[in-house]
Design a protein that fits this description.
A hairpin with a 3-residue loop joins strand 26 and strand 27 (about 405). The chain has a four-stranded antiparallel β-sheet with strand order 1-32-31-30, with no helix packed on it. It is built from eight helices and 32 strands. Helix 2 packs across helix 4 (about 50-55) and helix 3 (about 40-45) packs antiparallel against helix 4 (about 50-55). Helix content is about 15%, strand content about 40%. By secondary structure, the protein is mainly beta.
C-alpha cells in the first residue's frame, strides 16, 4: 500500500500558533551592531521612532564611529569616554558650522582686477563670475594636484544671475548616474540663458527682448516636467522647458507672461506649491503666477498682485509666506490671500540685504554699518540683536541655522555671529593682503557659504583674489577677536573639553 501524503490542512493544524518578530524584540546590543552600518541621517531617524530604538541610536560606539569618519586627527579616546560621545560630537559639529576655529584650510586664487558679480559654492565646487566670464574651481582636484580650474566665455555681455540645480531636478539629463553633480544656469545682458555642465554649454535659450536679469530660485513643476523661469528688462516673465531638444534650445520657450511695466528683478517659487511663481519688478510691483494655467503670450495666469514701498532688495518664500525686502523694511505676504501679514526690520534709511531662517522664525537684515536680527513672532519694531561689525553698507549676508555671515564693499573682513545668541564668533579677512592702505583695496565683493565652507572674493589695484576656507578639519578654537574682546565661543557644557580638539 502506498505511503499516504499529508494534506496541507494537516500542516496548518500542527502550526496553529505563529509568532512574529519585530525590530523591538531584538536586544540593544544587536540593534547597536546593526546600526553600525547606518549613516548619520539614518541613525537620527532611528532615534525618533521610539524610546527603545532611541537608546540604541545614542550608543557611544555608534558616535565614536562618526568621530573617526569626520575628525580622525582630533579624536581622543580618553576624552570620548569621559563624557557623552554624542554630546561632544554635536558640540564640535556646531562649532565647525559656526566657524569657531582659527586654523581652517585656506586656499587663495588670483584673478583679473574686475568687479565680482556672483559667487556660488557647492561642496568643493566654486563658481565665480566677472563680467561675462565664468570661473569654475574644483577643490578636490586642486588638493590632488590635478587641473582644477576652467573658464567659460560663451556669454558676450555681463552675467546678471547664476543658479545651481541638482541633476535630480533636471529632466534634461535624466538617466545619467552622476547625481551629485550640479547644473549651472546663468543669465546675461546678451539676452541669453545658458545651461552649463562638465565645463561646456549644454543649452542656450533666447527669447527676451533685452537683458535677462533674473532666474527663479527653484525649478517649477512636478517630477517629470521641470520648468525654469526668467525675468527680463523687457518686463516679461518667460517659462522654459528643460526637456527640449536641440543644443540651441529650440521649442524651449513654453510661455511668456505679461503684466509688469518695469524690469523684473527677482523670481521666487512658492514653498507650498511648485506651480506658483512670485515676481517683483523694479517699481516694487509683485505678481503671483499659476504656471499650470499659463499659455504663451497670455497673462491670464496671474492670480495675485500687491506692491511694497521702496526699491526691491530681495525676495524669499517659505511655505505660503512671501518675504519681500524693499526700501527700509521687510514685508511678509500670505500667498493664499495676498494680504500683508507683517512688516518688520525697519532700517533707517536703507536696507541693503536680508536672509531668513524659517525654522527659527528669524530674519536678518543688513543696513549701513550693522546687521540686525529680528524674531517675526515678537514686536516687529524691536530687533532681537544688533550685530555691529562692517564699516559700511552690508551688501552681502548669509544666515542659516547656525550662523550669520556679513560683509560689504568698504570692509576688508567679514564677520560671523551665532544665530541663536548674536555673539560674534570670528572675523575673516578676505582681501589681497593685511597691510594695504584702504585706498588701494576694496572690501568683500562676493560671498558664498555652504555648511562649514566659505568663499569670498575681493580685488585691489594689482589683482583680484578668491579665498576659500574649509573648517571641517580645523582643530584650534578661536579665543579672542581682533579687537581683543573675549569671545563667547564655548558654553559651560563644552568649556572643559575644548583642549581635547588640539592636535
Amino acid at each position: 500500500m502506498a505511503d499516504s501524503v499529508p494534506s496541507p490542512s494537516s500542516y496548518q493544524s500542527r502550526n496553529t500558533t505563529t509568532t512574529t518578530t519585530t525590530i523591538t524584540d531584538l536586544n540593544v546590543d544587536s540593534l547597536v551592531h546593526a546600526a553600525a552600518y547606518l549613516n548619520l541621517q539614518d541613525v537620527c531617524n532611528l532615534a525618533m521612532t521610539c524610546r527603545y530604538l532611541k537608546r540604541a541610536a545614542y550608543s557611544d560606539s555608534i558616535w565614536q564611529r562618526f568621530f573617526r569618519e569626520h575628525w580622525p586627527q582630533q579624536q581622543s579616546s580618553s576624552s570620548l569616554h569621559s563624557c557623552g560621545v554624542r554630546e561632544m560630537y554635536l558640540a564640535r559639529r556646531t562649532a565647525v558650522q559656526q566657524f569657531k576655529f582659527a586654523d581652517p584650510f585656506v586656499a587663495d586664487f588670483y584673478t583679473d582686477v574686475r568687479p565680482f558679480n556672483h559667487l556660488q559654492l557647492s561642496g568643493n565646487d566654486i563658481f565665480l563670475t566677472q563680467g561675462s566670464m565664468i570661473q569654475m574651481i574644483n577643490m578636490d582636484r586642486y588638493q590632488s594636484g590635478k587641473d582644477f580650474a576652467s573658464t567659460l566665455s560663451d556669454h558676450k555681455a555681463r552675467i546678471t544671475c547664476m543658479r545651481l540645480f541638482s541633476l535630480n531636478d533636471m529632466s534634461l539629463f535624466r538617466g545619467e548616474t552622476e547625481r551629485e553633480q550640479k547644473v549651472l544656469v546663468t543669465s546675461s545682458c546678451d539676452h541669453s540663458i545658458r545651461l552649463w555642465r562638465k565645463g561646456s554649454c549644454q543649452r542656450c535659450f533666447r527669447g527676451h527682448n533685452g537683458p535677462v536679469l533674473s532666474l527663479s530660485n527653484k525649478l517649477l513643476g512636478e517630477d517629470n516636467i521641470k520648468v525654469l523661469a526668467s525675468g527680463g528688462d523687457d518686463g516679461t516673465v518667460r517659462l522654459w522647458s528643460l526637456s527640449s531638444s536641440g543644443k540651441r534650445g529650440q521649442r524651449a520657450l513654453k510661455a511668456t507672461l505679461y503684466g509688469h511695466e518695469k524690469a523684473v528683478n527677482f523670481l521666487v517659487v512658492a514653498g507650498y506649491r511648485t506651480s506658483l511663481l512670485a515676481s517683483i519688478s523694479r517699481d516694487s510691483k509683485v505678481r503671483v503666477w499659476d504656471t499650470t494655467t499659463s499659455s504663451a503670450a497670455r497673462s491670464s495666469c496671474c492670480v495675485g498682485m500687491t506692491s511694497v514701498p521702496g526699491a526691491p532688495v530681495g525676495m524669499q518664500c517659505h511655505e505660503s509666506l512671501l518675504y519681500i525686502a524693499a526700501g527700509s523694511s521687510v514685508t511678509a505676504v500670505d500667498l493664499r490671500t495676498m494680504r500683508k501679514v507683517m512688516t518688520a526690520a525697519l532700517h533707517q534709511p536703507k536696507l541693503y540685504s536680508f536672509d531668513i531662517v524659517p525654522s527659527k522664525s528669524l530674519i536678518c537684515t543688513g543696513g549701513d554699518g550693522r546687521a540686525m536680527l529680528w524674531d517675526i513672532r515678537r514686536n516687529q519694531e524691536e530687533s532681537v540683536a544688533e550685530l555691529d561689525g562692517p564699516s559700511g553698507p552690508i551688501t552681502l549676508l548669509h544666515m542659516d541655522s547656525y550662523k550669520i555671515v556679513a560683509g560689504g564693499p568698504r570692509d576688508s573682513s567679514i564677520n560671523v555671529w551665532e544665530v541663536d545668541t548674536g555673539a560674534q564668533t570670528n572675523s575673516l579677512s578676505c582681501c589681497c593682503g593685511e597691510k594695504e592702505a584702504h585706498g588701494n583695496r576694496s572690501g568683500c565683493g562676493a560671498l558664498a557659504v555652504d555648511g562649514c565652507r566659505i568663499a569670498t572674493a575681493s580685488y585691489c589695484q594689482e589683482m583680484g583674489i578668491l579665498r576659500f576656507r574649509d573648517f571641517s578639519n580645523a582643530s584650534s578654537p578661536v579665543t579672542k577677536l581682533e579687537d581683543d574682546q573675549t569671545s563667547k565661543f564655548w558654553d559651560s557644557s563644552t568649556d572643559g573639553i575644548s583642549s581635547d580638539w588640539q592636535n
